Each structure stands twice: as structure tokens, then as C-alpha cells.
Amino acid sequence: MARVRIQPRSAMYRLALSQPGGTLAQLLILTSAVDSDVLPALGLLSHRVRHLPANPAQLITPPSCDLILLDGRHDLAGAKSLCKLLSSTGIAVPLIAILSEGGLAAVSADWGIDDVLLVTAGPAEIDARIRLAIGRTAEDHSSRKIHASGVVIDEASYSAKVHGRALDLTFKEFELLRFLASHPSRVFTREQLLSEVWGYDYFGGTRTVDVHVRRLRAKLGDMDSLIGTVRNVGYRFNQHEDDTDAVYRE
Fold it and tell me: Domain boundary at 103, 122, 141, which?
């Protein structure tokens, strides 16, 4: 199966979420239940919520989000299996399991989750746990630098360099470079890039991607070949053959 790559929104956005009164979060709920009322009190909050079936096949090209809530109320074995899959394949956002009180006895560290929520939790508790989980993730990512084929991307300062030369990038150019460099050699369609960089609710056309790629290549100068075109498919970040650790935390 393809690796699951659920990407968070920008580090600056995550940090805002961690502050009292911060911007509302985009939540992804994974559930196989017919009803959508997985966590009743969540409906009293204003966070944006999207549901997906709790099925690995649905997560090959998942939407970007700030936090994942996984429904483990009725199938503990299935929930554990999916949690372990997500945590072992590069998930970059907090993962919280929703459990009944009886399910607490089954949860353990090997689930790979960041926290648990009882289905009976009130809105204040839900909001606090979401805020704390996203805040911890923002701190974990604040010092990360992405190194890939001569490009160094500092997510904390929103700056990028290529072979030591600073790049003067707009926010979207930075996000596009960051996303592609985080997945070296992987090809993304224009639709996927729109979803991951601009957001799944962006209504602009795919030409937006082409324009930003052209501008990004111009700023890369003689390193413009780092952004490769796969004809009739999309774009990818061209990783050098000797660049074995393209992404790591300093």
C-alpha cells in the first residue's frame, strides 16, 4: 500500500491555533459509523470538521488538516490497527482516539496516538485537548529544517536557501516548495497540489499551480530543474541520487 501522508497546514497557522482564542482548526474524523455524531459535544464548537471512512484505502491522498480524530467506539482492534498504520507512515498532525469508557482499558503506547477523548467529553475538554495537541505539534515542528538536494527550508522563519543563496519567495511559493521538497521524487497532480497547498476548498483553477511553478523555477535560477514536470501528470521535486536523507530535523 502507498504511504499515508497527511500533512499539516503551515507552522505559523498551527502556532496560532495553539494560542487562546486562536484560529479555528480543520479537523478530520475517521469513522466507519453510519451516523456522523461521533463526538456529540464537538457540534457545539466552531471547528471545521470533515469525515472520511476509517479505511486505509481512503487515506492514500487525504486532505490536509490540523488534527485527526479516529473513532474507536465500536471497533477497538480496527482502531488500533489504523492508528498504528498512521503513526508508522509519516503522519505529521496530532492523532486523537475517540473511545468509550470501556475502551480505555485497551489503549496503550503502541497505538501511537497523542491523546484520547471519551465520547462523553464536554465541549470545554474537547477544545482544550485539541488546542494542546496542536500546540505541542507546532513546537515540535518549530525548529525543523528540510534539507533536499541543496535546498534548505526553515519552517520556523519561513525562509529558504539553495546552495546558501536566499530565495525571495511569496507565501504560496514557499508552501509549494516546502511541500514538494518534503516528498522528493513523488509526482503530484495539479489537483493534489491545489488541495495540499491551497486547501481543498480553494475554487481557483489548476492554472494557478502552473503559474506558481513557473515563478518558483525562475527564482531557483540555474537550479530550476529541481522542480520537474511529468508530462500529462503533474510535478515533482527531483532528488539527487546521493541525497538519501532528504528531510530531517536539525
Answer: 141
HSE value, Cβ hemisphere, 13 Å, CA-based, for 63:
20
From the centroid of its chain, how far is CA 250? 20
Q: Which three cell numbers stand for residue 27?
A: 479537523
Would strands 165-166 and 159-162 be described as parallel, antiparallel, or unpaired?
A: antiparallel
The chain-wide mean pLDDT, for the chain, equals: 82
Cell readout for 69 is: 480524530
135 lies in the same domain as 175:
no
Segments forming the whole domain that contains residue 85 = 11-141
β-bridge partners, 51: 29
The four Cα atoms 197, 198, 199, 204 give a dihedral, to 10 degrees, of -140
Q: Is 76 helix (H, G, I), strand (E, B) or coil?
A: helix
Segment 46-66 mean pLDDT = 83
CA distances from 171 to 167, 168, 178, 181, 185 (A): 12, 10, 10, 15, 23
Task: Report the percentage of the chain scoring pLDDT > 90.
Answer: 51
Q: Cα angle vertex 198, ends 194, 203, to 5°?
A: 75
Same domain as 173, residue 60: no
CA nearest to 29, candidates 91, 114, 97: 97
Q: Which whole number is the average pLDDT over 228-240?
A: 90
